[in-house]
Every structure is written in C-alpha cells, then in structure tokens.
Specification:
- GO terms for molecular function: ATP binding; UDP-N-acetylmuramoyl-tripeptide-D-alanyl-D-alanine ligase activity; UDP-N-acetylmuramoylalanyl-D-glutamyl-2,6-diaminopimelate-D-alanyl-D-alanine ligase activity.
- The protein has 456 residues and is an alpha/beta fold.
- The protein contains 13 helices and 22 strands.
- The chain has three domains: 4-91, MurE/MurF, N-terminal domain (Udp-n-acetylmuramoylalanyl-d-glutamate--2,6- Diaminopimelate Ligase, Chain: A, domain 1, 3-Layer(aba) Sandwich); 103-310, UDP-N-acetylmuramoyl-L-alanine:D-glutamate ligase (3-Layer(aba) Sandwich), CATH 3.40.1190.10; 319-455, Protein-Tyrosine Phosphatase, Chain A.
- The strands form four sheets. A nine-stranded mixed β-sheet has the order 9-10-8-11-12-13-14-15-16, sandwiched between helices.
- α4 links the parallel β9 and β10 (159-163).
Length: 456
C-alpha cells in the first residue's frame, strides 16, 4: 500500500481520529482476517464481521489502528489507535479508490464462465518476464476482495492482472468501478453459476457484459471467436480495440497445428510455435487470450514463449498426481460446469491412448433449472468418447451415468455412488493397475479427498 499516515487515512475514509498519533505510518489495510493484524496495519472492523471472532483477540494484537463505527468504540482495547466512521464498508471503498488513484499500474480484468484463473496465471507468467506484475491470488475473484487486491499495489507495480468472477449481477461492475481496467478478457460465456442468476443464460451474458462496460473507453477487449455464448455480448457502446482469438473460426490470433503431448500442448499462432505444460484445447484458448494481451503491450515473442513455458497449472486444475498401483491421477476437481467437465473428458480421451481410462465425476452445482440438462449433456459425451470406466458420485451426477447408458455406454462399466468412500473401495478392488483416472466435480463435493486416498 502507498505510504499514508494515520491522520491522512482518517481524512481519506471520511472518519474521525479518536485515538493515536496522526503522524504514525500505515503500511497496509485488512478487513477479513484479524489474525493478520500487526504493526503498521489497520483493521476495518465491520459490525457483522465482529461477530465472527472474539473482540478479546485484539488485546494480544498490535496495529496501526482500528476503523469502526461509534457503537464499537468502547470495545476496542486502548492500545489500538482508533478511527470512527459512519459506515465501515464505504470507508473501506474510499481507501481502495484512493489507492487506485495513486497507482499507475495497467489493470487487466479477466472474466468468463471457465478458464479465468488459468488465463490469469498464464498471462501473469508472461508479463512477469517484462513488467513488475501483481496478480490476484488463487481465485479470490468477487468484489469483496477487490480492495485487498488494490492494497497490495505499490509504486513499483507496472501491471495488475485481476480475475473477475461474480455471485450476482452487478458484482463485476463494482470491481470495475474500483479497479478501472484498461484491458479486458472474456474467455467465454456459458452455463456456470446460471442458478445464481435467475436460471437464464442471458443473465450470464449480462454479468460478463459488465466488464466490457467497465473498461476504459479507449481500452482493449479480447473475445473468443469460437464461443457461441460470447455472441450475446454487446459491443455497441465500446469504442476501444477488439481482438478475437480462435481455433475454428476466423480470428485475429488463430491457433493451428495443435498437438497433444504426454506433458502438454504444442500449437502455433500466426506461424509462431508455443508450448504449454498442461493439456486441452480449452487451455489453448486461455493461452491465446494471454498471447493477445502480451502482444498488445509490447512483450517480445520470445518472452511470451518463455512465460507460457514456465506457467504451472493452478492447484486441482488438471494437476498430475502419481497414484498407487502405477495409476496416473488427474486432479481437476477444484470446480466444474458441464463445459469444463467435457473439456476435461476430452483431455482424458487424448492422453489415455492404450491405457485404461476412468472418469470419476461428481455433482455439478449452481446450475439451477439447467442441472438435469447439464448433467445429461456430460453423459452423452461420456457415451461418445467411451472411457474404460465411469464412476459418478452424488444424486445429480447419477444423471450422467443414466444418460451415458441410455446412449450406448456399457452398463457393466458404470458405477454410481452417493459417497466417496464407496468409490474408493471400488477403485481399489476393480480399477486396473496403470490406469489414468480423471476427477471432476463442483467445489462443494470436495473430490480431492478421494484423490488423496489414492495418491502414492
């Protein structure tokens, strides 16, 4: 965070300094994890947040100050400086706006129904070859985390890559108001989280549209020319530069000569060769979006190639794990939607070759009224690609199994379970040594437990 004193901070957030030296330096602001409180840090204490921890915890902590409302003032231990505000959330966002105004970093926003985190990580891996780069951690991608991302910016940062997800309409819009992105990537527009958006795919497009509407008017937008859902996005009011990426349809950046390898993907973009150490055509799209941005801001081709080469897949996204009995486990279980599950099954189909292949698929959440159709769509794809075994876990995932069988997948190679422990016993007793086992489900399923039991 940019240097600011306690007195300046009080003015920025529209508060009143009740206790503390106005000249004391403030180095960072936190508002979610009191355990991180310490010297040089201020804590924004929400009334609702205060119920999640015992205020007595503050007695053993040091701080640069506590920012809260008058009703909590008497509860704050006296060794903490104190700023009183009328609304803690508004105060937090005021400080975040001040921080963004001080930063000269180029902000790049990444949204989409799938591939956000991977694209963000690929792009950051490239940009770090030329620029001092900040990227939002993990998949902390909703508006509640945006102030924290901005507080991490220093005067040295030249670029910030922020993943922008949502839980409701308006969430990405709020992120853009604070972060002010100049470049935006929409990876695709699909059914992910449709259940949170009134069960209509049009609302998913509306949510992603918020990034386009929130871009700098003279900014740059990257779109997927092959994605049907992206055609729902409106460019009517966007006056910046639009770059389309693609594999099938004509695009500004086109991937060709795509080849699956044991450890990753080879492909060419406008004749230039690239390699990524992860699998799947869907990851070629993610790489294309990253290449498009890097080219626009002057990253040399060799640095782009090196950045992609050194990219590592995020945790539980096509993560290779050595299993017992010479099995290869592919842990893709961080989250799921029907499109990303099918993309993962394509990977399983390509890399299994002559080895036995096993698809372990759990419930897909947040689909609302599209749940039955979404799971059935996956089932049809299973019947089409015919992995050696299909294992489903959960009541909704059972639809995958029933649909696959109805479309010709052999019933004697299907097992449906309600609990992971049942699947574990079946895998131990039945799945051949040397198999490739692919795991995919929504976050709430916690399918990584099963992977952990099977790893070497």
């Amino acid at each position: 965070m940019f240097p600011i004193t306690l007195g300046q901070l009080a003015r920025v957030v529209g508060g009143r300094l009740i206790r503390g030296n106005p000249s004391s330096p403030v180095r960072f602001a936190i508002y979610q994890q009191v355990r991180h409180l310490g010297t040089g840090k201020v804590l924004f204490l929400y009334t609702s947040f205060s119920k999640k921890f015992n205020l007595s915890e503050l007695r053993s902590k040091k701080s640069a100050g506590i920012i809260t409302t008058a009703q909590w003032a008497s509860s704050i231990p006296h060794h903490h400086p104190l700023i009183i505000v009328s609304n803690v959330n508004e105060a937090l966002w005021s400080l975040a706006r001040w921080q963004r105004q001080k930063s000269k970093a180029l902000v790049i926003g990444v949204t989409g129904s799938q591939g956000k985190t991977t694209t963000k990580e690929m792009l950051a891996s490239i940009l770090m070859k030329k620029f001092i780069t900040f990227r939002s951690p993990s998949n902390l991608n909703v508006a509640a985390y945006t102030p924290s991302h901005l507080f991490h910016l220093t005067g040295r940062h030249q670029v910030a890559v922020l993943e922008m997800g949502m839980r409701s309409l308006g969430n990405i819009r709020r992120q853009c108001i604070l972060a002010k992105p100049k470049i935006g990537i929409v990876t695709n527009v699909g059914e992910a989280h449709v259940g949170n958006l009134g069960n209509t795919l049009d609302n998913v497009a509306r949510a992603k549209q918020e990034l386009i509407n929130g871009l700098d008017p003279k900014g740059i937008l990257i779109l997927n020319a092959d994605d049907p859902g992206s055609k729902k996005l409106s460019l009517k009011n966007f006056r910046g530069k639009v770059i389309r990426i693609g594999i099938k349809n004509r695009a500004d950046l086109q991937a060709t000569a795509i080849r699956f390898q044991l450890n990753g993907m080879h492909f060419k973009v406008n004749g230039v060769p690239y390699y990524i150490k992860t699998w799947g055509q869907h990851n070629v799209y993610n790489a294309l979006a990253s290449i498009a941005v890097a080219r626009q801001i002057g990253v040399p081709t060799q640095s782009i190639q090196q950045g992609l080469l050194h990219y590592s897949s995020p945790y539980m996204r096509l993560q290779r794990v050595q299993g017992k009995n010479k099995r290869l486990l592919i842990n893709d279980a961080y989250n799921a939607n029907p499109s990303s599950m099918i993309a993962g099954l394509k990977v399983l189909n390509y890399i299994s070759q002559k080895r036995p292949s096993v698809a372990v698929l759990g419930d897909i959440g947040e689909l609302g009224k599209y749940s039955a159709n979404g799971h059935a769509r996956v089932g049809r794809y299973v019947a089409q690609t015919k992995p050696t075994y299909l294992i489903t876990i959960g009541s909704q995932a059972a639809i995958i199994a029933r649909t696959a069988q109805a479309h010709g997948y052999p019933a004697n190679r299907i097992r449906t379970f309600t609990k992971q422990a049942q699947a574990l016993h079946y895998i131990h007793s039945t799945i051949p040594s040397g198999s490739i086992v692919y795991f995919k489900a929504s976050r709430k399923v916690g399918l990584e437990w099963l992977v952990k039991q099977l790893r070497k």
